[in-house]
Structures are given as structure tokens and as C-alpha cells.
């Protein structure tokens, strides 16, 4: 097994163990079971800190944060994070891209806020990050962060094809360093993250008439 594959599997294992521990404490906060869930969390925090090799990440601090995030009962059930992204082309067939604070380029994206539908979220993200007003027209697919080799937090990202209806370029002062429209074969570098299948999906939905949404097979 390659080093990156091993790291990815270990990260997935840690995510699962910490989720089981926090969910267990949500439903069984006291008693013998709670002690075992506490042990799981402690070991997961220690492994996460060792895996990240970040001196700023302390296992004890991570354990406290997990405790603070643990709810009670149904509200404490730990699930994957939900995000959304916009694939929006102009009338010249160029894709809207933003430069994130890290310097890497990506399509407009963000976490889904409570109280908004995925389509509402993606329209808001584009407006906030770029100033453009868009309407989501089709679900391109759901991207699983673990399936694309990311060892960070487990996220399901819903990718939407969007129509640009108005607005003008206006960059968010904290979230967007730069933005522009680019041909799919001339995307700016460096690109964010590890996933690149979204490029082929964008081409298929915009130019080849694809309508069937993508999801990772079993």
C-alpha cells in the first residue's frame, strides 16, 4: 500500500472512531459505555495529533473540542459535513473560478448553512464570493472527499451547474483573493485539493448534454 493510501485509510479510521465516540456519548453520557466511548475519543485524538504532525494541534485540546461539540441524543449524532459548489459558465463557455485565501484556485464553494437548501446555499456562496447572481439548474453530482483522497474532515460536496443571471465581479475581502473566467483546458494554477474529475463532469454537463448526476459507486 502506498504511503498516501495508508495515510488516507488511517485518517478515515480516526474519523470513524471519533464519530462513534462522540455519538456514543450523545446517547450514553454516563455509565460503563460512556467510559469506553471516552477511551475511544482519547485514542482518536492522540492518533489525529500524531498524523497531522502539527505542533499547534494538541491531543488534549482536540479532545476538549470534541467534547464541546458533542450534543445530546439525536442532536449529537455525528455525520459527514455537507458542502456545495457552483459550476457556472459565461456566454463564451468559460468557467467562473476563484482564488482562495491559500492562493489555490477552485470553483465557488462552501459549507451548507442550517436553514437553507443546497441550491440556496450554492447561490449565496457565488454571490458572496464573486458578486454574481446565479440560478442552479442541475445537480452535477455528489463528491465524497474520502473518495478523492483527502485525509481531512469527511465532507459530501453537492456540485451544481448554475446559470449566471446578473451581478458583477465583486470579490469577498476575506474569502476571495482573485476571480475570473477560464476555459476548461486553461484553468489557473495551482488548483485546490486533489479532485479533478469535476473538470470532466463540468465539460460533460455544459457541452455534451449530460443530465445524469454523478455519485461514487459502491
What does this structure look like?
- The chain is built from five helices and seven strands; from the N terminus they run αααββββαβββα.
- By secondary structure, it is α+β, with helices and mostly antiparallel strands.
- It has two domains: 74 residues, no CATH class; 127 residues, Nucleoside Triphosphate Pyrophosphohydrolase (Alpha-Beta Complex).
- A four-stranded mixed β-sheet has the order 4-1-6-5, sandwiched between helices.
- A hairpin with a 5-residue loop joins strand 2 and strand 3.
- It is elongated and about 65 Å long.
- The mean pLDDT is 92.
Short description:
By secondary structure, this protein is of the alpha+beta class. Helix content is about 35%, strand content about 25%.
Supply database-style keywords.
218 residues, Nucleoside Triphosphate Pyrophosphohydrolase
SSE order and pairing:
Layout: H1 3-27, H2 32-52, H3 59-69, E1 81-89, E2 95-99, E3 105-106, E4 109-111, H4 118-130, E5 132-144, E6 155-167, E7 178-182, H5 197-207
Parallel strand pairs: 1-6
Antiparallel strand pairs: 1-4, 2-3, 2-7, 5-6
Helix pairs in contact: 1-2, 2-3
Instruction: Count every beta strand, where a strand is a DSSP E run of 2 or more residues.
Output: 7
Order of helices and strands: HHHEEEEHEEEH
How many helices in DSSP terms? 5
Major beta sheet, strand line-up? 4-1-6-5
Over all CA atoms, what is the radius of gyration? 20 Å
